[in-house]
From TrEMBL:
NCBIfam families: rumA. InterPro entries: MeTrfase_TrmA_AS, NA-bd_OB-fold, SAM-dependent_MTases_sf, TRAM_dom, U5_MeTrfase_fam. The lineage of its organism: Bacteria, Bacillati, Bacillota, Bacilli, Lactobacillales. S-adenosyl-L-methionine binds at Q321, Y350, D371, D419. Belongs to the class I-like SAM-binding methyltransferase superfamily. RNA M5U methyltransferase family. Residues 36-94 form the TRAM domain. It comes from the Bacteria. The active site is at C446 (nucleophile), C446. Residues 1-21 have a biased composition (Basic and acidic residues). It holds the Pfam family tRNA_U5-meth_tr. One of its GO terms (molecular function) is rRNA (uridine-C5-)-methyltransferase activity. CDD domains: AdoMet_MTases. Residues 1-33 are annotated as: Disordered. This is tRNA (Uracil-5-)-methyltransferase related enzyme.
C-alpha cells in the first residue's frame, strides 16, 4: 500500500495484488539446479514447515521445494513449476494426506491471486503461523538474547472476514464486452474478476459491482493495456467503518471521462451510500496505480474515519491501515508498549495521517511526526486541528533526514514510535535513534524479517521486553508486530 504512495508497502498498491509476493527471486547464476529435475516433473512431498509467504516447504533430494497451498505435515504430489540452483517451486497436483486444519477457502480464486495465501488454513492455525514467522525471523538474524524474548500469541479477530476497508481493483473489458474488475493472477497481468471477496467489507463490494455494471451499461471506454487505449484503469472504493462514509476513485488514462454526467447521475440514484467521488489521472503504461492529478467529481473531497475517539479526514491517496477493527487493537498495543508518562515528548516516525501520534497527544507534552508523502502530512496536521489538538506537528521528509535535524536543533524526544514500511529502518535513522537514546522506544513492524534484522542493532542498546503480533490481514501471510524496547 505503499501503494498509493503512502501505502506502507508500495508493492501492495502498485501492483494489483493485495500484496507483493516475496518468494526468493531467481537470478542468472542460479539457473542450473543442484539435482536433475525439470519443470513439469511430479513427485510426492511431505511438507515440513511454512515459509514466510505462507507456502509449504518440503525437501526433494535435499533441495527446498516451495509449494503454495500446501500445509505443514501434509503429504502431496507436487508438480515442479520452476527450477533454480538451490530450490524449486512447485504447485500442488494432489493432496494425498490433508491435515485436519485444512479448510475450504471461501474465495474460489484464493489459489490464483495474491492476498489469500492462508485461506485454506483454519484461523487459529493462521494465528500460530504468524507467531512462528516472528520466531523464525528471530532465529535467522539472532538479535541479542533472542532465545528469551517473550513472543506473545498473535491477537486475531473474532470474525476474520469482511474486514478490508478498501478495494482497489483493476478494470478490464473481456473479449465478449463484459467489464471485469479484480486482481491480477500472481506473476501475470491476467485479470481475475472478483464478483465477491470474503475479506472485503461488504459495502466495498456492493459499490464496486454496481460501478462495474454502470461502466458496462454506459459503455464507458475501459483501459486496454496492450494498446494503451481506453480510459478507466482502476476502481478504488474505500469505506470508513465507523462513520459509514464511502469514497470512490476512478483512476483514468486521461482527464477525459466519457459519460461522466450519466455515471454521476446513476451513482446518485443507485449508490446513496457513496459520499465522495474523485478521479485520479494516471496516463500511459505504468506499473504505478496512482497518478499525480486528483480531481473532485462530486460529494465531499474526503471521507472521515473515527479511531480511538478521534476523527481522521482522509484524502483519496492518504494511507490508512486496511483493517479498522484491528487498527484499534494495534494502536492500543502501541500505546501500552510505549507507556508514555505525562509531560513526555514523543516522535511518531513514519506517521501517515498522524493516527498514532494524535492518539498520544492527550498525555504527551509535545508530539512531532514526519512522513514522505506531502498529502499525508497535510492530512495529519489538519487532523490535529480537527480534533482540537495543539501540541502535535507533522513535517514532510524522511525519518532519516528529519529526526537527525531535530536532534541537531536540540529536540531530544523522551519516546519514539517507528512504523516503517516493509524495508525497515534506514541506517541513518538507526544511528540517530541510538544517538538520541530515547527512554521509550516502540517498533511497529509489518515485516518480521526486517524487524529481526533491525533488532540486531537496536539490541546493542535496548532490551526487547516483548513482541506482540497483531493480525491485521487475516487469510494472508502478512504479519504485523509491536515491539516494546527498554534501555539496557
Ligand atoms: N503510522 C501510520 C503509517 C504507517 S505506513 C499508520 O499507522 O497509519 C508507513 C508510512 O511510512 C507511510 O505513510 C509512508 O508514506 C511512510 N514512509 C515511507 N518511507 C518513509 C521514510 N523514509 N521516512 C518517513 N516516512 C516514510
Amino acid at each position: 500500500m505503499r501503494y498509493d504512495n503512502h501505502q506502507r508497502d508500495h508493492s501492495r498498491n502498485d501492483r494489483a495484488g493485495f500484496h507483493n509476493d516475496r518468494r526468493p527471486r531467481r537470478n542468472r547464476r542460479e539457473e542450473t539446479p543442484q539435482v536433475a529435475v525439470e519443470v513439469g516433473q511430479r513427485f510426492p512431498l511431505t511438507i515440513k514447515r511454512m515459509g514466510i509467504n505462507g507456502e509449504g516447504i518440503g525437501y526433494y533430494k535435499r533441495m527446498a521445494v516451495f509449494v503454495p497451498g500446501a500445509l505443514t505435515d501434509e503429504e502431496a504430489v507436487v508438480e515442479v513449476t520452476s527450477v533454480a540452483h538451490r530450490y524449486l517451486r512447485a504447485k500442488v497436483h494432489r493432496i494425498r494426506k490433508a491435515i485436519p486444519h485444512r479448510v475450504e477457502p471461501r474465495d474460489s480464486y484464493a489459489d490464483r491471486v495474491g492476498g489469500f495465501e492462508l485461506e485454506h488454513l483454519a484461523y487459529p492455525q493462521q494465528l500460530q503461523f504468524k507467531r512462528d514467522i516472528v520466531r523464525q525471523s528471530l532465529e535467522r538474524y539472532e538479535p541479542r538474547g533472542y532465545q528469551d524474548y517473550d513472543v506473545r500469541p498473535t491477537l486475531g479477530m473474532a470474525d476474520p472476514y469482511g474486514y478490508r476497508n478498501k478495494a482497489q481493483f483493476q478494470v478490464r473489458q473481456a473479449d465478449d464486452g463484459t467489464v471485469q474488475a479484480g486482481l491480477y493472477a500472481e506473476r501475470s497481468h491476467d485479470l481475475v474478476d472478483l464478483p465477491t471477496c470474503s475479506v472485503q467489507m461488504p459495502v466495498t463490494m456492493t459499490v464496486m459491482r454496481a460501478l462495474v455494471q454502470m461502466l458496462q451499461d454506459l459503455q464507458v471506454p475501459i483501459y486496454d493495456e496492450e494498446h494503451n487505449s481506453g480510459i478507466v484503469k482502476t476502481l478504488v472504493v474505500r469505506a470508513a467503518a465507523n462513520t459509514d462514509d464511502v469514497q470512490v476513485v476512478f483512476i483514468t488514462n486521461s482527464q477525459k471521462l466519457p459519460h461522466k454526467h450519466q455515471l454521476l447521475l446513476r451513482m446518485a440514484d443507485e449508490l446513496p451510500q457513496v459520499t465522495s467521488i474523485m478521479q485520479n489521472v494516471n496516463p500511459g503504461k505504468t506499473s504505478l496505480i496512482w497518478g499525480d492529478t486528483t480531481l473532485h467529481l462530486a460529494g465531499e473531497e474526503t471521507i472521515t474515519e473515527k479511531l480511538g475517539g478521534l476523527a481522521f479526514k482522509l484524502s483519496a491517496r492518504a494511507f490508512l491501515q486496511l483493517n479498522p477493527a484491528q487498527t484499534e487493537v494495534l494502536y492500543n498495543e502501541a500505546r501500552k508498549a510505549l507507556d508514555l508518562q505525562e509531560g513526555m515528548t514523543v516522535v511518531d516516525a513514519y506517521s501517515g495521517v498522524g493516527t498514532i501520534g494524535l492518539s498520544l497527544a492527550g498525555i504527551a507534552q509535545e508530539v512531532r511526526g514526519m512522513d514522505v508523502i506531502p498529502e499525508a502530512v497535510a492530512d495529519a496536521n489538519a487532523n490535529a486541528a480537527l480534533n482540537g489538538i495543539t501540541n502535535a506537528h507533522y513535517e514532510v521528509g524522511t525519518a532519516e533526514d528529519v529526526l537527525p535535524q531535530w536532534a541537531m536543533d536540540g529536540f531530544r524526544p523522551d519516546a519514539i514510535v517507528v512504523d516503517p514500511p516493509r524495508t525497515g529502518l534506514d541506517q541513518n535513522l538507526m544511528d540517530t535513534i541510538l544517538a538520541v537514546h530515547p527512554q521509550k522506544l516502540v517498533y511497529i513492524s509489518c515485516n518480521p524479517s526486517t524487524l529481526a534484522k533491525d533488532l540486531v542493532e537496536l539490541t546493542e542498546d535496548y532490551r526487547v521486553d516483548y513482541i506482540q503480533s497483531v493480525d491485521m490481514m487475516p487469510q494472508t501471510a502478512r504479519c504485523e508486530a509491536v515491539v516494546k524496547l527498554s534501555q539496557r
